[in-house]
Amino acid sequence: MAKSVGRPYIRRFPFPNARNTTMAKLQPLETFSLQETEDGYRLLVSALGGDAIYVSITTAQMDDIIESLEAAMGGEEDGDGVEEDEAF
User: Fold this and answer.
1) What is the DSSP string of 48-82?
2) Domain boundary assignment for the chain
């Protein structure tokens, strides 16, 4: 019997004023753009054949997103083989 395996690295972020709604239709990513702002970041995301959406992200939220992405990709690797030369 196959055991269902969840993805523990994918989590909901506790955003204030978020409505409890059903999940939107999953669409393939077409483009994204990230810009730094005074308050954090502005992210533009668009799906193939869909509308674009801008969202503002705080620095703390960006840190949470990065941690989740690192976990999804197998964690942060120690010593990726690139050493910085401090002689310069």
Assistant:
1) TTS-EEEEEE-HHHHHHHHHHHHHHTT-PPS--S-
2) 29-72
